[in-house]
Each structure stands twice: as structure tokens, then as C-alpha cells.
Model the fold of this input.
Amino acid sequence: QKEVEQDPGPLSVPEGAIVSLNCTYSNSAFQYFMWYRQYSRKGPELLMYTYSSGNKEDGRFTAQVDKSSKYISLFIRDSQPSDSATYLCAMTPTGGFKTIFGAGTRLFVKA
Amino acid sequence: DAGVTQSPTHLIKTRGQQVTLRCSPKSGHDTVSWYQQALGQGPQFIFQYYEEEERQRGNFPDRFSGHQFPNYSSELNVNALLLGDSALYLCASGVNGEQYFGPGTRLTVT
Done:
């Protein structure tokens, strides 16, 4: 079993839809939770960064962490074609330096 | 504010050769991590450097080695290249997961 599980998709939605992306994990030591966006043949771009449980909102993006269920989510409101990319979840344990990534979910937003 | 930079952009090598990739961290960052990303996969942690020392290592063989310089820039060296080493190599700076990535070096081993 992988430490971090993420559905690779692809996920296809119409423009303006609300997108929900999710990851589950098995290591209870994870304390830092991140979402990255990666366009084809580019480096990942940090979108959201959360410490421990709770919600965080930034513009059209909302990140949720539920440590009791070992489940994290990213919501994208009013999705745009420019949001079409691969979304990677990532986690780091407290006091550790090794960040573990999910496999990434490919998202397509159709105009 | 300069972000993370990497060189070269692309590289083609032959099996058995050695390669060196370079990274300059984001301004103000002193920690550099290296990742390998195979096609269709998430990045895999290779190692992290801080104060010119390797602080933690992922599940990669000793053929993968690195170095950090006093100006915090870093190199990744891979010896005895295998076909399976073909991937996008990413450098990131920052700590506790709040890491910023460079554009990557695409390595092709033939």
C-alpha cells in the first residue's frame, strides 16, 4: 500500500463547475499538507499549504485536512480552462524532511 | 525575487555515463531537495541538503549523490546511468513541505 493514494483520473468538467480533488494517506505522522499544480513539462507550483487539520481558503481554492480520517481535499470553484493541469497532493511529517507525493490527478476543464 | 533555477533544461546521455544537474534555490532559502519524476507519476524524494550536508535520503541507490555549496546552490550527480533513470529531475527549496520547485531537467538515457 502506498503512503499516499490519489486517483489519477482523468477528471473532465465543464467550465464553471466545482472541482473536488482528494487524497488519502496512511502515515499518521504527516503534519504538513500541500497541493501543487503542474502543467505539462513544467515544475510543480505550490497552490495551498496547510499545517495539521482544518480548512484554508485562497481565492477560488479551498483546502481541507481531516486527520482523523487521513483524508485531504482541494476544491476549485468556478473552474476555468486554464485550471486544466495535473494536481498533486503532498505531505511531510513533523520533524521530517521527506515529502511524499500522490501520483497526481489530471484535470480537464472544457470551455 | 528569483525563483528556483535549474540547468540544463534537457539532457541526453548514454547508458553507463555520468551526469551532473545543477540547482540554485529561491532567494532566502538555504535548504534544497531533489526529486525524480517519472512520466505519469508524482515526484519521488531523492535527498535533501542543508548546511552542505545530506539531511535525509529517499530510496535511491548510491549512484545518486549530491552536493551543496556555501551559496546554497546544489548539484545532483548520477553515475552509471540506466535506461530507468530517464525522468524529469526537480529541485525544490524550502522546508516542512512549503517547497518551491524549479522547472526541472529532463534527462533521457539511451
Notes: Residues 11 and 65 of chain A are 21 Å apart (CA to CA). The longest strand of chain A covers residues 30-38. The radius of gyration of chain A is 13 Å. Chain A has no helices and eleven strands.
